[in-house]
Amino acid sequence: DAGVTQSPTHLIKTRGQQVTLRCSPKSGHDTVSWYQQALGQGPQFIFQYYEEEERQRGNFPDRFSGHQFPNYSSELNVNALLLGDSALYLCASSTGGAGTEAFFGQGTRLTVV
Amino acid sequence: GIQVEQSPPDLILQEGANSTLRCNFSDSVNNLQWFHQNPWGQLINLFYIPSGTKQNGRLSATTVATERYSLLYISSSQTTDSGVYFCAVERSFKTIFGAGTRLFVKA
Questions:
Q1: Hey, what's the torsion of the CAs at B35, A97, A108, B40, to 10 degrees?
Q2: pLDDT tens-place string over residues B19-70
């Protein structure tokens, strides 16, 4: 049983560029959530996708957008990258109901230079 | 929004010692999970525990939802227990993490 997989594992981008990160959920899961984790801090909730719609969003600007595909995989897009966007980006999958257990991928480490 | 506070922020133990990590949250939640983050950033599920008590080997956890706190117990600690422990709560499909407890176990 494949767990949550994210790609790429590492990425270096230049300030002002755009980036797309990808996530495949655990088998049987239909909900994907994205998080940003700065060095030394806890993960911060970006948004959650369910049934191809953004169901909930954290306190992140519109430069952060996402998409969920019919196979439940998801993308996180960040436009106009800032140095402060450098972080570990984590994806979690779960089933659609409230309060279900979430499982995390290994993360994508983004460095903006 | 919900506030999640973890204590202590840092903890140094001698191998074989026991410890208790605490997570307080400010409002009712649908879910509470404990994670261990390894040095490579992977979040490992320890417990899914919105209420009650669970045990898994040397680890156990208790959540008292009515009093809005959870405890993670580590017994007979090992060097491999080192890392950051996070508590995360979910309400209205939004998950909030605490700042974590950084544990170092000395040999």
A1: 10
A2: 999 999 999 999 999 999 988 899 999 999 999 999 999 999 999 999 999 9
| Tens-digit pLDDT profile for residues A67-111 | 999 999 999 999 999 999 999 999 999 998 777 899 999 999 999
Q: Which of B10, B90, B92, B102 is the best mutation test for A, with the most CBs of A within 10 A?
A: B90
Cα distance from A45 to chain B (closest Cα, Å)? Answer: 6
Q: Which of B45, B50, B100 sits opposite A103 (nearest CB)?
A: B45
The string of DSSP letters for A18-55 reads: -EEEEEEPPTT--EEEEEEE-TTS--EEEEEEETTEEE
